[in-house]
């Protein structure tokens, strides 16, 4: 996970990048670097992996606080999806907190980028298809896929206000996947080096940010 600050037409926007650090950090850096060299972009900061690892050793609550702080002052969250990203607990937490924060949200597949060993990845599941929302007793909750079944999301169990969602609130106990409302792109196939700034703006506009 890391944060990029985008400057577009005089407006400063920070984008949070969520990804599987151990598996895809090299690919994520490639995405980051293409934003850094753009004349309309600059680095707003990125989360240091050593701090992340230290937070994991403390407690789940310490790590959650660390991730929430990382999302502060951001308006868009980009999920960089590799082969194993969708199942990662803390990627899911970053997605859920992004929704609660009102961030624009989208997925970018990065399997077409090479890792440090120059190897391409394997296309994975869109993480936004494995997190959703549903309505129960006139209250809205998050759900996640576990072993092929939808269960109540365990890392945030409170009800959500419909007014806090930038997309249509669910009206039944049938889970609506977040991917229904969010775009998915392929970095290699859709020239992400050139187009990712536009994808960020599209996600921001969708969320009214």
CATH top level is Alpha Beta
Number of domains: 1
The poorly predicted ranges are 37-48
Question: Could you estimate the helical fraction of the residues in percent?
Answer: 25-40%
Task: Tell me the CATH topology.
Answer: Rossmann fold
Strand content: 25-35%
Give the structural class: alpha/beta
- Supply Rg: 16 Å
Q: Mean of the pLDDT scores? A: 85
What is the count of helical runs? Answer: 5
CATH architecture: 3-Layer(aba) Sandwich
Tell me the strand order in the biggest sheet.
Answer: 3-1-2-4-5-10
Sheet having the most strands: 6 strands, mixed
Order of helices and strands: EEHEHHEHEEEEEEH
Polypeptide structure, described:
The protein has 209 residues and is an alpha/beta fold. It is 32% helix and 26% strand. It has five helices and ten strands; from the N terminus they run E-E-H-E-H-H-E-H-E-E-E-E-E-E-H. The strands form two sheets. The chain has a six-stranded mixed β-sheet with strand order 3-1-2-4-5-10, with helices on both faces. Strand 7 and strand 8 (149-152) form a beta hairpin. The two termini are 21 Å apart. Residues 16-114 form the Thoeris protein ThsB TIR-like domain. Pfam families: ThsB_TIR (PF08937).
């Amino acid at each position: 996970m890391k944060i990029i600050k985008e400057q577009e037409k005089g407006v400063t926007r920070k984008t949070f990048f969520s990804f599987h650090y151990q598996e895809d950090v090299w690919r994520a850096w490639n995405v980051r670097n293409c934003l850094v060299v753009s004349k309309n972009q600059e680095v707003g900061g990125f989360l240091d992996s050593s701090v992340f690892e230290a937070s994991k050793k403390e407690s789940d609550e310490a790590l959650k606080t660390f991730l929430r702080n990382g999302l502060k002052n951001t308006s868009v969250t980009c999920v960089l999806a590799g082969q194993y990203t969708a199942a990662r607990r803390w990627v899911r937490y970053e997605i859920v907190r992004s929704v609660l924060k009102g961030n624009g949200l989208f997925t970018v597949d990065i399997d077409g980028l090479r890792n440090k060993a120059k190897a391409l990845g394997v296309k994975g599941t869109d993480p936004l298809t494995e997190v959703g929302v549903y309505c129960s007793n006139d209250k809205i909750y998050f759900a996640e896929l576990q072993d092929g079944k939808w269960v109540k999301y365990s890392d945030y169990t409170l009800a959500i206000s419909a007014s806090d969602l930038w997309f249509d609130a669910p009206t039944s106990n049938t889970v609506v996947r977040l991917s229904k409302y969010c775009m998915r792109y392929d970095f290699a196939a859709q020239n992400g080096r050139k187009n990712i700034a536009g994808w960020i703006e599209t996600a921001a506009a969708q969320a009214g940010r």
